[in-house]
Structure formats: structure tokens, C-alpha cells
Amino acid sequence: MTQEETLDVGKVRAALRPGLADRVAAVRVREGAISLVVEGTGLDAAARGAAEAELKEALNDLANGKTIAVAFMGERVTRRIVAIGSGKGGVGKSTVTANLAVALKRAGVKVGVIDADIYGPSQPILLKSEDMKPEAEGETLQPVIGAADIPMLSMGHLVNKGRALAWRGPMAGRALAQLFEANWGDAELLLVDLPPGTGDVQITMLQKFRPDGAVIVSTPQDLALADAARAGSLFDQGEVPILGLIENMAGYVCPHCGEASDPFGSGGVERAAGRLDLPFLGRIPLSLAIRESSDAGTPIALGDTPEGAAYRAIADRISEALGTGAA
Fold first, then answer.
1. Is the pTM of the predicted complex or chain greater than 0.90?
2. Is residue 184 in some structural domain?
3. How many domains in the chain?
4. Which pLDDT tens digit goes with each residue over 72-118?
5. 261 lies in which domain range?
6. How many helices and strands, by DSSP H and E, does the chain display?
């Protein structure tokens, strides 16, 4: 029998000391990952961190190279939702979302990702979970574990690769509800990668799953900024606070000669934020390294490059605005 068929709660408990073993309530094995559900009642943040580290170390041999993810239950999680939006496609919003999730995780935030771009999901590639399929308990989906051990769900996990979806509003709304109502465990912050524009998905989210804040991504040129302003207007109408604007693809340094240029202009988003009296969260360069790491499913925020530092600085500002961070 394979490890997936034989690994159960009893085998996991047998590898642990008695006090910790008694807290293991369930074990789920998926391709590339083992998820443990652990009773966390009475444990403060420090004790939970120590228990998680002990579990991972004790079960390393049983895992046989699989990622070990630990979710504590027993206390209500205060969960925030942040929508990442843009007025138009092609501005790099999905790449920004994936890297912000990684940066927030590195900062100690328990973060999950919802890929709400029903028609063009990108997060399975960006967070390296393209071949994973979520399991369900009853009608509740269990998120898959992507890069950096980030729980995530996308329409790309639920339909065959390459299949086109021709769904009208109600069907898209039901699909979105499945993603939001999944078992997000102890995730305290969900980043929602929205489709571009101001269509059915955005309206459904505002009506049923009101975000605690929104972030608008745009490139510096005037056309993208005009569309971004419309996206911001939708959040204003829904009384969702806009946490700030991000300028993406801002500046390019030639890898051969080192000359810097601005193919999409420079500073437009920062100036727009000033006019609208909104926070400017920062800028991300146009970079070959970002493109290559995104295609590989290893977000550049995992490393300590200048590009990764840019994402981490923005993530820190978002975390500060929400009052979310490592305990």
C-alpha cells in the first residue's frame, strides 16, 4: 500500500509525545502535502508556534518529503479579507497578489489566497499548485497548499486545465461562494485576486463577502489609471475602505547595459493617490526576474532580492493598516 493509503491519525499520534498526540484530531493527505488538524484550545500564540514546530520535526520521517501544514481549531479566528483589484487586465495584479501573500506569510501573518478570477485563474501557476485538486468534506472545500505553505483555492483547481468557462452571473456567484466558504482553518487574512474590471464577481463579493479593505494595482500610464479609478469607485460605493494603490511595472533596468528606462511612464499612480487622498503603498519594477519566478511558481518574494524587498515593504504597509501581524 502507498503512504497515502496507510498514513492515519493513529500512525501520526504514535510518532508524537503523549500530550501533543492527544491534540491531533485529523490528518489529511494530498499530493505533496500532509495537513494536520490540531486541538488548540488553551494554547496561546507562542504555545501554538512551539507545538507546530514540534509536530513538523517529529513527523519529518513520516512525511517522506511532503509539506506538513498545521491548522489549529478550538478558538474562533478573526479573519480579514482584502480584495486586490484593477480596472483592466495586464497590469500584473495576480503576480502582485501571489507575492504579497508570500511576503505576509514571511512576516508571520497566517494568510490564504482566493483566486476569484473565475474566467482566467492564474494563482495555481503562480503559487505552484496547478496539478492539485481540493477535497471536500460534505459541501465544504478544503484548500490546497501552494508555495510557501499558503492555503489557496482557485477555479483553476476545480475545472480541467484549458477549459473555457461560459458562466453568467449566478453561476459565477455560486462558484465564488464555494471558494469563500471553504475551510480556511486558522488563516487570519484572505487575499482575494479579483478579475479585472467591475463585473459580476466584484458585485457578488461586495454583497455577500464584504472585504475589510481593497488594494488597487495599476501601471503608471494614463489609460490604466483611468480604469483603476473606476475600480476604486466601485469599492467606494460598496463602502469598502481602499488601503492604497500600488504602481506595478514601474521602471526597467536593462540587464546588459544597466540603463534605466520607464516604458510605462513613472510616478503616475503615486500622483493619482495624492489627488484622491489615498495611501500610496509602493512601486514594483518591471523585471525579468519577477516574470521568470512567476512562471516557475516560486514567487520572487520568497527570496531577498530587491524585487522581493519591494513586495515585503508593501506587505508591511498593508499589515499595519489592518493591524494584522505575527503574534
1. no
2. yes
3. 2
4. 876 556 789 999 998 778 889 999 999 999 999 999 999 999 999 87
5. 80-322
6. 13, 15
